[in-house]
Amino acid sequence: xxxxxxxxxxxxxxxxxxxxxxxxxxxxxxxxxxxxxxxxxxxxxxxxxxxxxxxxxxxxxxxxxxxxxxxxxxxxxxxxxxxxxxxxxxxxxxxxxxxxxxxxxxxxxxxxxxxxxxxxxxxxxxxxxxxxxxxxxxxxxxxxxxxxxxxxxxxxxxxxxxxxxxxxxxxxxxxxxxxxxxxxxxxxxxxxxxxxxxxxxxxxxxxxxxxxxxxxxxxxxxxxxxxxxxxxxxxxxxxxxxxxxxxxxxxxxxxxxxxxxxxxxxxxxxxxxxxxxxxxxxxxxxxxxxxxxxxxxxxxxxxxxxxxxxxxxxxxxxxxxxxxxxxxxxxxxxxxxxxxxxxxxxxxxxxxxxxxxxxxxxxxxxxxxxxxxxxxxxxxxxxxxxxxxxxxxxxxxxxxxxxxxxxxxx
Length: 410
Ligand code: LLP
What we know:
This protein is of the alpha/beta class.
């Protein structure tokens, strides 16, 4: 987003015009930013055989998936429904990594039929898999590296007490199952968490993957998961992708040499690809001063963007309708019957009733975690591509609130 002649714009389109055209609340995504992020990653890992498997759960609109497909990326899917979304937009099953957690074996069997790469995250499932398929279907194994990292306890998933992956301490048990069924293990996977800043965390994960990999002879790829930290706050330090790329690639190449085979390196970024591309445009319904605060009550809330409430996440806010003049301190809150503070104590140029605010970093885990809480409608989504705005999801209507409810006539 740029500020040109006191107007906030994406690819030359003014955000207040977008809000006027589509109404608020509305999610707006900058397609060029998404393409740039992919390019940056490809550049950072240009020295190794990189495969990007975009984490679909971050933002799963079919047009975003199509845009990513055009960049040459594949996807990571965590449910059979996300796998189906991938197929729907034309991904080849071989470009889809299926990384489920605690699903039934039936769902895994469905994925086998479709032909996607299956990432197995527990030993009982590995046993089921061995009994059903032996070595006839290639698989990946998700290891839990026991690394505590990530921006928030709720999104740190690689520690010893996490439900994800198979403990690295249980590698011997894994090898036993692999041997007894002759499983065809072609990949190993770790994902330590989200909002990870340091290259060292990825390098630590790499060492653990490399050590484990030496126990398998038929590997084709190692998957480092996602988790690159993006900037949420002005002045935030963010992952230096070029530095991470250089350091991890160097270690990876050295490992491949000792392994005797050039493996592919896979990553599953979500936030890095889409977080900064997205803005949630909302309207100030009311400016309400109390003896201690000035609240801006907007036409959205935790039903549309749950991150501030769920993770105490910081999201920058811009007054799209007024970019200059005296600043005041405001607390931006939603219209939900809960304390749904979106942003506390923010300095903004004077906000008046009816002004449009843009909530930043709303591309990742924004719409995809939205709900109908308080029987509110989910917002529309707009993609800006090649200087044009495209409606990519209609705003819900009251019919959507009633859909699937069964009136039993009492
Ligand atoms: N791969 C796996 C196996 C994952 O579990 C995740 C995220 C990713 C990749 C992508 O991570 P990313 O690059 O987006 O950090 N809703 C939370 C984030 C949850 C992430 C869950 N797994 C949030 O809004 O912060």
